[in-house]
Amino acid sequence: MLCHRPGRDHRTTIRINSPIEETMNIRHILLMTDFSEIARSAYASAVNVASKLDAMIHLTHFTGVVPSLLPQRDRDQHFENLAQALSSEACTHPSFASVDVTPHLIRKRWTRSRQRALEDELEIDLVVISPTGRTGIPLALLGSFADRVIRHSSKPVLLFRPRGNATTFDPQSVLVPHDFYDPPTAVLPAMGLLSKHFDSRFRFVHVYQPPTSNDDHVRGWIESISHSRGAAMPTVEDRFAKLAHGPLAGLDVTLETCQGIPALQAVQRANDLPADLVLIGKFDGLGGVARHVVREAPCSVLTVPKS
């Protein structure tokens, strides 16, 4: 049950029907696969995005470690078999019937540096992946391979985790956790793209931390600084309203504030709405809130790197 901060409106809605300029450009999509059925469940979502944005899909498989004790001929045959399987996947899988798909077999195990080098080489704008590890076995938590890709990718990553029987990416309701202490500049370009191509509605959620014994002292210190400067500190609602009349103009945006632990509340709100997508900025390596949302959200998650 959400506990809304006393004395504050917990929801503010501002809708301004002016045009918004799209600033996020997606032309090359890196789609990760391990040939498992759960990895394949992300194919249709990647195709949906590619079709709407006229983008190319790069279907990619990292081969992993091949035992050095194997004869060279056996290793070569192993790679050849994988290359044929990947090429067949790109050419014959039903999901890829309407888009351009280029297979890329990486004959090495995955590492952060190889991931980023591949993203640069292929000029990747978006990575799409399913929430499983390399084995394709469904896990209660995010699979280790997907987790590493999301944490270390230098590009936005779409983790496709559909609700119910959905098979394509259709983010009508998007939850955007944000603290509003800094402008949400990382996610704004993605919001513009989602609004333009998917007609998405956005719910910002700001979570106030539970009060502590030091709150009165800190509040008094902040108020004294504000008084000395002759102006009150802007509230979250003030910051949201400024964004709604500026960078967010043209979007269907709603602000909700509540009290609790930010990571837990973000997941709970995604479940309660229900949201089709959680859009969240991340620092390299994932912070605590983003990590929990990626692993526990009941829907797809789009992470966007913060500079």
Short account of what is shown:
This protein is of the alpha/beta class.
Folded structure, characterized:
The chain is α/β, with parallel strands linked by helices and 307 residues long. Helix content is 36%, strand content 21%. It is built from 10 helices and 11 strands. The protein has helices at 37-40, 43-53, 72-92, 112-121, 144-152, 188-198, 215-229, 236-244, 262-272, 288-296; strands at 11-15, 28-32, 56-62, 101-106, 126-129, 157-159, 173-177, 201-208, 252-259, 277-282, 300-305. Strands 1-9-8-7-10-11-6-5-2-3-4 form an 11-stranded mixed beta sheet, with helices on both faces. Helix 9 (262-272) packs parallel to helix 10 (288-296). It is elongated and about 75 Å long. The chain starts with 10 loop residues before the first strand and ends with a strand. The model is unreliable at 1-20 and 133-142 (pLDDT under 50).
Indicate the topology:
Layout: E1 11-15, E2 28-32, H1 37-40, H2 43-53, E3 56-62, H3 72-92, E4 101-106, H4 112-121, E5 126-129, H5 144-152, E6 157-159, E7 173-177, H6 188-198, E8 201-208, H7 215-229, H8 236-244, E9 252-259, H9 262-272, E10 277-282, H10 288-296, E11 300-305
Parallel strand pairs: 2-3, 2-5, 3-4, 5-6, 7-8, 7-10, 8-9, 10-11
Antiparallel strand pairs: 1-9, 6-11
Helix pairs in contact: 9-10
